[in-house]
Amino acid sequence: MFTIDRDAQGAVVASGRLDAAVAPKAQAFLDGVDGTVTVDLAALDYISSAGLGVLLKTQKRLIGGGGRLRLVGLSPHLRDIFVYSGFDRLFEIAPAR
Fold first, then answer.
1. Could you tell me the pTM of the whole model?
2. Average pLDDT, the chain
3. Is 79 helix (H, G, I), strand (E, B) or coil?
4. CATH for the 3-94 domain, from 3.40.50.300, 3.30.750.24, 2.60.120.200, 1.10.274.10
């Protein structure tokens, strides 16, 4: 099961599996954010190439408006995916909040 929402501090929190089946839901949610946005991925178990595409599309849109995505809380497995794909050079990645 995949969920995405804002927490009390305004960060976007995603949990579960971000794959092709839920990518449209994630994209629709992220299309509504602007500025510099923190995305907490500590509870994300899995991300597919479709999920990476959602983050990349959102990052490109935000950068065009002077913002960016800041990813926090990646598990070692997710961090490896970002490193192997080269996405660690496209996003600011920080430890858990």
1. 0.95
2. 96
3. helix
4. 3.30.750.24
